[in-house]
Amino acid sequence: LVHKCAGAAAARGACLSAVTAAAEAAAAAVATVGVSLTTCSVPGAPRSRRLDNPHTVELGLGIHGEPGREAITLPSATDLVDRVMTVLSAAPALSKPVEEGGSVPPLALLVNDLGACSGLE
User: Fold this and answer.
1) How far apart are CA 73 and CA 83, in angstroms?
2) d(CA 91, CA 8)
3) Which listed residue (64, 98, 111, 115) is catalytic?
4) pLDDT digits (tens, 9 = 90+) for 71-87
5) Which spans of this chain does the record mark as coiled coil (predicted)?
6) Burial bucket for residue 36 (CB in 10 Å: 0-12, 13-18, 19+)
């Protein structure tokens, strides 16, 4: 998402310092959390078995196989989204108070597959 913001600034003809500023502003406003049912394969590393239980999901894992903040029993999709939103709303980028009578700033939501599948799949 940060790259998309930088690319949009560049496509508008912004100078390099303005493109950098757009990327830095986007990065400062991003909150992210990963959710997975399986771990990734890291070349040269033994296969992780921490998510071998088919009823376990990991919340907050890293994209390179780093363990997440917690492994939980697989909840319903609705409950999982609630849990993800609780984590995201506590992130510094999203936890700024809204002044009384003020409006909530617009949000963008990007959902991806943590690199698990190619676009063709």
Assistant:
1) 12
2) 25
3) 64
4) 999 999 999 999 998 88
5) none
6) buried
Judge contact between 93 and 25, C-beta under 8 A.
no
* pTM of the full structure: 0.69
Q: How far is CA 8 from CA 18, 88, 106, 107, in A?
A: 11, 25, 18, 17
Tell me how crowded residue 58 is: count the other CB atoms within 10 A of its CB. 20
Residue 86 has, within 13 A of its CA and on its CB side, a CA count of 7
Three-state secondary-structure class, residue 72: strand
Q: Is 64 a catalytic residue?
A: yes
CA atoms within 13 A on the CB side of 58: 22
Question: How many C-beta neighbours within 10 Å does residue 84 have?
Answer: 16
